[in-house]
From TrEMBL:
This protein's name: MBL fold metallo-hydrolase
PANTHER family xrefs: HYDROXYACYLGLUTATHIONE HYDROLASE GLOC
Source lineage: Bacteria, Bacillati, Bacillota, Bacilli, Bacillales
Highest rank taxon of the organism: Bacteria
Record's keyword terms, sorted: Hydrolase, Metal-binding, Zinc
Natural source organism: Bacillus changyiensis
A Pfam family assignment: Lactamase_B
Keyword Ligase: no
Cofactor(s) essential for the protein: Zn(2+)
Family annotation (InterPro entries): MBL_Glyoxalase_II (IPR051453), Metallo-B-lactamas (IPR001279), RibonucZ/Hydroxyglut_hydro (IPR036866)
Occurrences of domain Metallo-beta-lactamase (ranges): 12-191
Length: 212
């Protein structure tokens, strides 16, 4: 399995492309710059199967429609945020950018923690709310990595001052779902560089000392 991080847009939101040796791939959080993302996929001769969203804030959905239409692939998002894709007042774009950033409705709604099989890819969906009510993380156990969106960053955690955010809920999500993973699990975050569970357990000042 191969993965690439592609920071996109004015606040450099990380999109991720996971691919296998047969060139099939999954796209996570295409937040902006659809041309850049689609061009990379074409240059690498990849075959996209789906778009998976960790959550539906504007900076994670801005390129969804152009990428979806280019490759004719389905979009996954949590049910709690199905309306955020179409509503700028919910996804934060109207408030924070003064623009109406939207996407068409998702094709598949996630409602519970479950195993997903999309082509050759096997993922576990973890419900990790707190940054937003429908935040999810995608865990690939065989690859020893988790795509956490804006839940956990290198040395930091997601903001909780947006509508629907909750600091205590976020910390519970981090401790119960992410920090329970093997210490060498790679964390692919929504912004900034990758990290791993051990590093955050030992060094992250936002989660050290928190008790459930």
């Amino acid at each position: 399995m191969n993965w690439v991080r592609m920071p996109l847009g004015p606040i450099q939101t990380n999109a991720y492309i996971l691919s296998n040796d047969e060139k099939f791939c999954l796209i996570f959080d295409p937040g902006s710059e659809a041309i850049k993302l689609n061009t990379y996929i074409k240059e690498k001769s990849l075959k996209p199967l789906a778009i998976l969203l960790t959550h539906a804030h504007f900076d994670h959905i801005g390129a969804v429609d152009k990428v979806r239409k280019e490759w004719d692939i389905p979009v996954y998002v949590h049910k709690n945020e199905e309306n955020w894709l179409t509503d700028p007042s919910l996804n934060g774009s109207a408030l924070l950018t003064g623009q109406n950033i939207t996407a068409e409705k998702a094709d598949n709604l996630l409602e519970k923690e479950e195993d997903l099989e999309i082509g050759p890819f096997k993922l576990q969906v973890f419900l990790t709310p707190g940054h937003s009510p429908g935040s999810v993380s995608y865990y690939l156990e065989d690859e020893n990595l988790i795509i956490s969106g804006d839940v956990l960053f290198k040395g930091s955690i997601g903001r909780t001052d947006f509508p629907g955010g909750n600091h205590e809920v976020l910390l519970n999500s981090i401790h119960k779902k992410l920090l329970s993973l093997p210490e060498n699990t790679l964390v692919l975050s929504g912004h900034g560089p990758e990290t791993d569970i051990m590093t955050e357990q030992e060094e992250n000042p936002f989660i050290n000392g928190f008790t459930l």
